[in-house]
């Protein structure tokens, strides 16, 4: 499990060249180094403020506030229809919010969508791709669309294929792939430009147990100094890879804390599968209603 260490790493990477001596604290070099240090530590990778989405009479997302710093792997949980995919589509600019705003690496996605979209890789729900293209053609196309060419584009495609183990199917048309390989091709596409932010909508959906294991290991490895948000229904996955768990129910955040804190919310009499018991307690019946009333926007600032 990662802890505050990830943030400390980011901070210390931009240490000023030397500590200030007497009278030096207002020197331009010292102030520039201090300002850089402060900025790098302070700007969260993902900021969502008061996000709202209405589809006609369906109020799918109701005021989500979320900040995700570098080094955090956030498990985004909630029952079907809770609003996870809608939130992720708004964060990535693929769906216009009815209210609120999103900043990625400090860039407002509504103001500068092209620059904001360079900052992240996104694995959407399902498997959007061109059915006739082979895996390698698809990845080469994405590399081209992202502005890479020549050897750089080729190297990036090779690295992505290697990272998610697509060697065996690289010449296969996308439509002939199993669901697991389609997901993995989607993951390779999201990693191609080596982004500092990853938004992954159910990355292990449809994978067999071995593939799930591989993808979890990859996500842990990618964690490092990136900010990762992944949605999942598999609670053991949250314990295995996430440093933070956020649960939403009916478009509202009802829990935000560490996986261990989430487990501790299970009812006392739950002796097995305590994560599942905690999830049920948060998203069904009176407990959910209480949480909805009291915990509307508790996610701000983010715990680790
Ligand atoms: N394009 C859409 N048009 C109308 N309703 C939608 C649309 N997309 C999602 N919804 C509704 O918004 C709610 C949240 O959906 P979604 O974000 O997909 O949930 P989750 O990913 O948590 O399962 C659901 O009630 C869903 O039916
Ligand atoms: Mg979904």
Task: Describe what you observe in this structure.
This protein has helices at residues 5-13, 28-42, 84-91, 113-118, 135-145, 150-163, 179-191, 209-223, 235-241, 259-263, 274-283, 285-294; strands spanning 46-55, 58-68, 73-77, 99-104, 107-108, 120-123, 197-201, 227-231, 244-249, 252-257. The radius of gyration is 21 Å and the shape is globular. The strands form 2 sheets. A 6-stranded mixed sheet has the order 6-7-8-3-9-10, with helices on both faces. It has 304 residues and is α/β, with parallel strands linked by helices. Bound molecules: adenosine-5'-diphosphate and magnesium ion (MG).
Spatial strand arrangement across the major sheet = 6-7-8-3-9-10
Major sheet: 6 strands, mixed
**Strand tally:** 10
Given the helix and strand composition, which structural class is it?
A: alpha/beta
Secondary structure elements and pairings:
Blueprint: H1 5-13, H2 28-42, E1 46-55, E2 58-68, E3 73-77, H3 84-91, E4 99-104, E5 107-108, H4 113-118, E6 120-123, H5 135-145, H6 150-163, H7 179-191, E7 197-201, H8 209-223, E8 227-231, H9 235-241, E9 244-249, E10 252-257, H10 259-263, H11 274-283, H12 285-294
Parallel strand pairs: 3-8, 3-9, 6-7, 7-8
Antiparallel strand pairs: 1-2, 1-4, 4-5, 9-10
Helix pairs in contact: 1-2, 5-6, 6-7
């Amino acid at each position: 499990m990662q802890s505050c260490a990830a943030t400390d790493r980011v901070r210390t990477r931009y240490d000023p060249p030397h500590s200030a001596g007497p009278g030096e604290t207002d020197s331009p070099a010292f102030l520039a180094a201090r300002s850089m240090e402060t900025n790098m530590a302070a700007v969260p990778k993902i900021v969502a403020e008061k996000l709202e989405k209405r589809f006609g009479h369906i109020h799918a997302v109701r005021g989500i506030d979320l900040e995700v710093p570098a080094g955090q792997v956030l498990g985004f949980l909630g029952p079907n229809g809770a609003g996870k995919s809608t939130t992720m589509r708004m964060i990535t600019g693929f769906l216009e919010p009815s209210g609120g705003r999103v900043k990625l690496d400090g860039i407002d996605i509504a103001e500068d969508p092209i620059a904001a979209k360079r900052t992240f890789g996104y694995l959407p729900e399902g498997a959007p791709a061109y059915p006739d293209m082979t895996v390698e053609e698809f990845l080469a196309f994405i590399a081209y669309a992202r502005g890479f060419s020549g050897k750089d584009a080729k190297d990036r495609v090779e690295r992505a294929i290697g990272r998610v183990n697509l060697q065996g199917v690289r010449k296969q048309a996308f439509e002939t792939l199993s669901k697991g390989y389609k997901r993995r091709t989607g993951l390779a596409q999201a990693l191609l430009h080596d982004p500092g932010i990853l938004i992954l909508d159910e990355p292990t959906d449809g994978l067999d147990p071995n593939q799930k294991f591989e993808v979890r290991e990859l996500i842990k490895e990618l964690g490092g100094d990136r900010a990762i948000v992944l949605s999942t229904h598999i609670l053991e996955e949250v314990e295995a890879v996430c440093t933070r768990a956020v649960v939403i129910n009916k478009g509202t955040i009802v829990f935000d804390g560490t996986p261990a804190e989430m487990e501790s919310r299970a009812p006392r009499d739950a002796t097995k599968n305590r994560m599942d018991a905690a999830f049920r307690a948060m998203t069904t019946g009176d407990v959910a209603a209480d949480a909805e009333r009291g915990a509307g926007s508790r996610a701000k600032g983010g715990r680790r």
